[in-house]
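Model the whole thing, not chain by chain.
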Amino acid sequence: MEAAAFYGFSALAIFAAFFILFSKNLIHAAFALFLTFLGVAALFVLAGADFLGVSQIMIYVGGILVLLIFGIMLTQKITKNDNSSKHNRIEVLIRREVWGFLVGAGLFVVMLRIIVTSDFRMKGDVMTNKSTIKTIGVELMTSHLLPFEIAGVLLLVALIGAAYLAMNRNPTS
Amino acid sequence: MIPIQHYLLVAALLFCIGLAIVVTKRHFIGILLGIELMLNAVNINLVAFGRHDPERLTGQLFALFVIVVAAAEVTVALAIILRVYGRYKTVDPDEVSDLKQ
C-alpha cells in the first residue's frame, strides 16, 4: 500500500515535470508545476514529514504558484487583434534543446551512478508513526532559534525589497 | 518501508528535469518554474535522510528553511522580472543583452 502510493505519487510528480519541460504554453506549465508540488508533498508525508507536506502545499500552491501566475499575466504582451472568444495562449519558445538535454541527462547519469553504487549505513532508528509537529516546534524555538530569526528578517527584507522594486515601474518615461 | 535510494532517484530525476527547464525555456517565468522544481527536489533528499533522525529532525528543519528562502527568492525575482519587462518590453533572457540603453 505504501509502495503503491509512493510510486504513484512519484510518477505523478515526474510526469508533470516532463510536461513542464515539453509544454509550450506557460500557463499549462504553471499548473503542471502545481501537480508536481502535490506529488512532492505526498512524498514528504510518506517519508514521515507531515508538517512539511502541509506547509509545502500551503506555501507553494497557495503563495508561490499564485505569484507566478500573476507574473505571467503581468508580463504578457497585449496584441491588438485579440479574439476574446479564444483562451489566451502564452507561447514560450524553446531554445538550446541539445544543451538542455545534454546537461540534464548527463547530470542524471552521474547522479544515477552515485546513488546506485552508494551504500548508506543509517545510524539512527527509523521514524515511528508519530506527528513531527511537536519536535519541529521545540527544535525551532531552542536549538534553531537563530536561523529562525534570520529567516524572519529575510522574509521582511524580501517583502520590503519586492514591494519597492515592483512599485513605480517606469520612473523616467 | 521504501528504501532511501528510491527517494534519491526521484529527487535526482526531478532536479535534472528542473535543470533542463532552466536551460531550455525562453521565458523568465519558465526559468523560475525550473528553479522552484530544483529546490523541491533537494527538499526530497533532505526529508528522506531526515527519516532516520526522529529525535532532532534536522533534515526536515533544513527543508523548512529551504522553503522559506525559496519564497523570498521568488518574490524578489518576480519584482525584478517586472522591472526588466517594464524597461525592455520582453521576457526573453537572450534579448536582454545590453547593460544600459
